[in-house]
């Protein structure tokens, strides 16, 4: 495995389900990010982790819960989502948050019914 | 707050031709970075090129080059010898430099959809 990987690639869930998105980076980076990409809107930064510590929560609803057990893994736990949460969720990593170039995973396409 | 504007929602270019994608940004920062990312139909966001604001020389990466005009806050991407594989959504992004341990965030434009045709 190289770069940044994300699983699953596609996910369909009901509004009462609980699911998790997984991201893993194989680049030796220490910062990881979650972004949301909706149609017709710019990418929105959701969360930032630096050395496993959350450094940014961009006013994300509590139905999205991130977890970063180590610098290589990042999770996004989902529960009681709304249809408007349907989007492409992208994970990224960088060597550090201080101007480091971010490298992205392939994304998880989420559909909330 | 920073804003990034891409005024061309869609563009088309013939194979082997040259195309320029426009990007302007607004910031009060003096030290920052600019990026172009491409997102093909596979949805993978791929770094194309990066420019440090303190560097006067325009960045180049094979067939990709930028025209960075700091005073005008303009950062256009030129793709030479366009190939079918260049078909993608192209995003311009801004990141300000921070000196502390806080997050350095990317601000993206809305993207330009480029279609390369035969």
Protein described:
The complex is a heterodimer of chains A (113) and B (118). In chain A, strands 2, 4, 5, 6, 9, 10 and 11 form a seven-stranded mixed beta sheet that branches. With 113 residues, chain A is mainly β. In chain A, a hairpin with an 8-residue loop joins strand 9 and strand 10 (103-104). Chain A has strands at 4-7, 10-13, 18-25, 31-37, 44-50, 53-57, 64-70, 73-79, 87-94, 103-104, 108-112. With 118 residues, chain B is mainly β. Helices cover 0% and strands 52% of the residues of chain B. In chain B, a hairpin with a 4-residue loop joins strand 8 (64-69) and strand 9 (74-79). The mean pLDDT of chain B is 92. At the A-B interface, strand 5, strand 9 and strand 10 of A face strand 5, strand 6 and strand 11 of B.
Question: Could you give a short description of this structure?
Answer:
Chain A is an all-beta fold and 113 residues long.
List keywords for this structure.
heterodimer, A: 113 residues, mainly beta, seven-stranded mixed beta sheet, four-stranded antiparallel beta sheet, 11 strands, 0% helix, 57% strand, globular, B: 118 residues, six-stranded mixed beta sheet, 12 strands
Largest sheet of chain B: 6 strands, mixed
Shape of chain A: globular
The general outline of chain B is: globular
- Secondary-structure-derived class of chain B: mainly beta
Which oligomeric state applies? heterodimer
SSE layout and pairing:
The complex is a heterodimer of chains A (113) and B (118).
Chain A: E1 4-7, E2 10-13, E3 18-25, E4 31-37, E5 44-50, E6 53-57, E7 64-70, E8 73-79, E9 87-94, E10 103-104, E11 108-112
Parallel strand pairs in A: 2-11
Antiparallel strand pairs in A: 1-3, 3-8, 4-5, 4-9, 5-6, 7-8, 9-10, 9-11
Chain B: E1 3-5, E2 10-14, E3 19-21, E4 24-26, E5 32-39, E6 46-52, E7 60-61, E8 64-69, E9 74-79, E10 88-96, E11 106-108, E12 112-117
Parallel strand pairs in B: 2-12
Antiparallel strand pairs in B: 1-4, 3-9, 5-6, 5-10, 7-8, 8-9, 10-11, 10-12
